[in-house]
Give the backbone structure.
Amino acid sequence: MSEILCQWLNQELKVSQTVSPKSFAKAFSSGYLIGEVLHKFALQDDFADFSESRISSAKLNNFSRLEPTLHLLGVQFDQNVAHNIITEKPGAAMKLLYQLYIALQRKKKGVQTGVEMPTVQPLMSTKVQNMKSEAFRDQRLSRRRQNEIMAKIQAAIIQIPKPTSNRTLKTLDAQKLMKKKKEAEDVANEIKKFEALIKKDLQAKESASKTSLDTAGQTTTDLLNTYSDDDYIKKIQKRLEEDAFAREQREKRRRRLLMDQLIAHEAQEEAYREEQLINRLMRQSQQERRIAVQLMHVRHEKEVLWQNRIFREKQYEERRLKDFQDALDREAALARQAKIDFEEQALRDKEIHEQIAIERAQARYEKHYSICAEILDQILDLSTKVADYRLLTNNLIPYKLMHDWKELFFHGKPIYEQASLRHLPTKLSAEHLIELEKRNLLDNNDYEEYKNMVGEWALPEEMVENLPPSNNCILGHVIHRLIESSLPPQVESTVPELPSFAIKGCLLGKTFSGKTTALKALEKSFPIQVLSIDTLVQEAIQAFHDKESVSGAHGLQKAPEEKALPVRQESGEENQACTSSPRDVQDGSLAEALPKKEDKTRLDTDARKAAKAEEVVASDSFSELTVRAQLGAKSEKLLKKGKSISDILLVSIMVNAINQIPMYKGWILDGFPMTLNQAKLLEEALTGYNRNLIELEGKKSRTSTLAVDPTASKEVPLPPSAFDFVMLLDISDNSSLNRMNDIMAEAFSSETPLEDINQRVAAKNKDTDEDQNLRDQIQHRIVGFLDNWPSLEQWFTEPENILIKINAEVDKQSLCQKVKEMFMTEIMKKENKVKKKLEEKEAERKEEVSLTEKTSPPPPPPPPPEPEKEKEVHLPQERSKTPAAKGKQASEPPHGNREPLQEGKGKKSETSLKRKGSPRGKSLGGKIPLKKSPAESTDVSPVPVVPAPSKPGSEEWVYVNEPIPEEIPSFLVPYWKLIENSYINSIKTVLRQLREGQHAVLAYLYDIRTGFQQFLRRPDHKQDFVSQWQADFNSLPDDLWDDEETKAELHQRVNDLRDRLWDICDARKEEAEQERLDIINESWLQDSTGIAMNHFFSLMQAELNRFQDTKRLLQDYYRAMECKIPMDDTKRFTRVPLVQLDSKDILESQLRIPLVPRRSISPESALSKPKTKSILKGKIDYTLESVELNFEADEKMVMDTWQQSSLAISHMVAAEIHQRLMEEEKENQPAETKEKLPQVAANKKVKKEPPPPPPPPKKKKEDKKGKGKSPPMAEAAPVVVPAEETEEVEVKNELKLRIKEEHLAALQFEEIATQFRLELIKVKALAFLEELVIKAVDVYRLMEKWLGERYLNEMASVEKLTGVARYHIETSTKIQNELYLDQEDFFINGDIKVFPDPPPPVRPPPVEKEENGTLTIEQLDNLRDQFLDIAPKGIIGNKAFADLLLDLVTLNLGTNNFPSSWMNLTQPELQELASLLVTNSESVDWRKFLLVVALPWPIPLEEELLETLQRFKALDAEQLGTVTYEQYKQAGLWFTGDEDIKIPENPLEPLPFNRQEHLIEFFFRLFANCEKDPPQLDYTQMLLYFACHPDSTEGVYRALSVAIGTHVFQPIEMPHPVAEKGIIDGKPV
């Protein structure tokens, strides 16, 4: 059927989609193809609205359009069919298509063509119209029935008369008339509508009939016109006319009938209306008649209703009371359940807390465990490292290595190398970073040792006495002044002059520790302000909501408050981003990083103005808000985003609140700060100091620098804390949880008044929400406090311990009392501290006043010139000190007080200038006095006796602080930093290379030691010669051993062997000596010493560079102070030459550093040179003489380099002094005449007082001119110079003199320190080279010692071998064991024999002897064989048995069939024996006979027989009742053959015979069936033989037990057993 449908669809209809039987359901599931089929038959006009989509809405649209068409065709189609087709149910689409195919084929056969099919559509329209008319008719009928029902209802209603109204009868009649009119109008309207509808239908039918008649008439006339001459056509035309007339008459009759029906219907309606009107009138009259009766009923009903109402009210009241009681009972039950739940929740909270505590303890344990494990690993590494280097250094570890390992161990660094630093990758790994940290640590330690001259750089004894000062004070002062002048001026924080008595503090503790309770009690007793961060945040947010704005004056007050916010935190934000929320916001997360831009806009107003376009708070209305409102807006913004409020914002809110408090009023913070970051920000905001920056400055000041100013403060004091006290209410975690539970339990127990149920429910919901929130946060709060408190405790106790701990696990009153007592104590401390500060300030002020009075005394009337000069010189000094003093004050902390120091300096300057006489008395130090000529010393004028002047750089010396140009510090400060960095880096690099070179030296020396030992142990071929000689020796015939000539020949062979072995030893010795000489002649030692010398020369170069750079810096500084232009020094820096390690020729122009060729001395040239110095102790070794000569050459090179560097420094200092003198000469030449005349005039005015001595430059100039021409004093014209100019000249000369003295003193100090360090480097270099050479020489000598000892040991081993050989020759014995000669060891190897030992003698087999007439095993076997041949079944006749025994006894001679005691038996005796073995028959069982004669053997018990039987059955897997010999031996019998047999000592004596073991084997041969292969033994039959007993009854039960396999017990009544005849004692009678 599917193929027929597919063929019909694809070929006949040709649908748009090819249909196959497999895709039939899927193709028709959308309904599109069904519509296409109907459309091809012109049955679906709306096919254009169909959709090919497979969505559900498109499918529903298609099938809804198909439904009416399918119904018209008579196809069964409903919702279920459509659902099955849509869901592609198998067979559903095919069934529908088959029905459609049948319907279409039926219509096709009925000649319903496509032209006639459209008539279906008018039928559908008429059907719809008929349905509409029927619906309208049904509506009318339903409305009529409804009216009737309503009328009946109205008639049945008993209307209760209402109270008399004021209306009149006319109004009632008018109302009734209006109702009737309205009803009549409604009926008329309905009739009109119906008539209009009927008319509309008639018009539609008439128009349709007219069109059909017109078309028929037209076709008729056309046909008649065409065929007018035909009669048939005329008849047809007539018939058509008659049909048209008849149709017209039918239409008229139908129209008349319809009109009659309409008239009848209207009459019927009119009659119905009249009938309704009459019925209504009748009902009205009936109602009036019922009114009287109803009134009587009404009164009675009212009374009944009243009584019922009263009864119901009582019932309602009782019900309400009952419901209320039930509600109370339910609430009580809920309260009890809630209490139980609360207790369970409390237990769960405690369990959670204990779990958290366990996890924290576990985390601490794991942390400590990991630390300990790491320490143990480091200890193990240190131990293994020490063990490794003990092998390398022969148990002599250098002190430096051990010191470095300890430093690494103490700093927690791994001792072993983690990664190589030779070739660093671009991206460093963790191992590379660790190695860099290790290297930096060791470099810093080495540099500190070098700088402080300790450890490896400790001074030798001869240099300790000449130790110069460790610091150049003048250079330190210069550097300090330059750095201060280069730094920007710092804004000092505004510190109030008068400290406030207001107390400041905070109260901290865990949740529910009692902070708020204690602060409330404290606030009631003392005039303080309590600030809570939660309340302040809420107030700030509320202020933002209230649009709290500032007025003009108020805004001016708020501006400084906003500036007081922590602005300095911007730099710290890059390193730490820690944010936290208040307690009502945070849920355990106490830190969250905020963007840097947001923090800047929060703190800096300029940045906020610059970023207005990106900020939310950039509007004008926002800027008009108060600071609190603005902070509240930012807080709310963060909270709405789900973030926590940042620490900076919280601190800003708190600082804003603190600024609102008056200065005289104290304040205490409630639970704030909560984190270390908050504490830091709060302290910076309140004090203006950043403790981290101050500590960083202190660290910088403590860092190693090349020059330190002793007058500058070394330690930076930490600022005071922002709090006067910090109280901690200490409480355990369990107590905090218990308090929370108690509070919540009180909330459960407290009852709300019952009047307002809504308020109670709302309050209860709010309390439950708060309690739940509290429960959720309590664990996070406790954990957060425990995490943050250690850092807070350290913060509040380190600089000044302001922390007070109070035990809060007490009741409220006790806690409040403790807090009050502590608060009173802190108030007293604060008052005492403030009073003390006030007293100190008052004392300082008085001291300043007294000093100012002392420094400005009234001038005397005749002022002498000397005091005037000193005063004029001192005033510029004070003026020059002011900028430096300001710079120092700016560099120090703002709260520091440097006034006493400045005053002290003023005093020193005054005293020094007053005590100072002529400047010529000042010694320049160093080598300057050596350059003065004797003439200069004789020309010195007499000087008055004055105290010794102060030296530059001493504590009394006042430094020259003349102003310098601004560009000088900006150049000299980076230059000095470059000097320091290059010097420190150079020193560290060289020391690192020396440190690493020490490791390389130890490793190399260990390698050559072990390598030489391996070389000495190389294999030799001496053992081959020894083995060959031993084989030849042992192969000598036995008859020649005692021959004297043979012995002489053997002795000669031994001598030859000895000589050959000695030759091998000599050759090995020569090879070892050559190997040692090759090691000595290697270039390693020369290269190592050369590299070490270059390292030490690099140290000298670093010192030389430091001196040259320092000299230039001092020169530029002091020339700038003298207002001179810095000199352009074109001279190149002095370079220390290095040692050239290779022999390549390099041009000098290509070298940046000069190289010195190094020539190593060969051993040949060393022999020809005289020996000057020896470092080799003991015996002279000419092989090491070249090492000594090379060392002497290296030592001389070090000395020459040191002298060259020292002379270079001395020449630079002398050149600087000479340059100074030349400049002074040039300056003094033009002003010489002007200087003398004022002096003459001044001498006349001073009334013959001695003139002051001239300055040194003038003296030198005079001395130099005195050598040539005389000074032209007489030629100069007398010029009158005023006294003021003379004083100014003297002041300038004095200032120049002091600058020169200070400059030269600083330079000379640097020269002395550099010379001392160069000498120390020289001493250490010589010691290092000597130690290196001694180590190498020790190794070389150790190698020589090993070589000699090994040679002697080898020679001794050869002598031992010779002695052993001669001994065996003389004793004429062979050498059986191998002679082993291995290098220096000789021994006789007992494990190896060169020929086998003679075989040992063979012990004879054991032989059984006859004892007491007992048959041997051999005799028993013979008898068995005899009996087996005669009677294989085991039974033999009595006579035959006796005859056989008689024959055997008679013929026993030579056969040994019986023992000797049996040889005398006669025939009667043998017959009697046979009769004993026979009981009731004439046959004998020869196996029984053999058992008897085989005695003695152990008689088995019944239990032993059963056990043996069970063993046999266990081995008999197939249960055949037989076993093989192997199974028989495995099972065993009740006895074994293991007897205590003594083995005889004589190897030729046979072993004793084991009879029982052979009996066990004989029993198998006796009872086994030998006919089978292998022989089989019936173990049950055998055991029945062994079950025999002297007591016949006992024997029977034993046999039964063996046969059954279990124990059979005898009855008690059994008579006594009778002994069996023949087996009484086991012997024949």
Remarks:
- The two ends are 118 Å apart (CA to CA).
- The chain has a mean pLDDT of 75.
- Residues 231-393 form the longest helix (163 residues).
- The first strand starts at residue 504 and ends at 509.
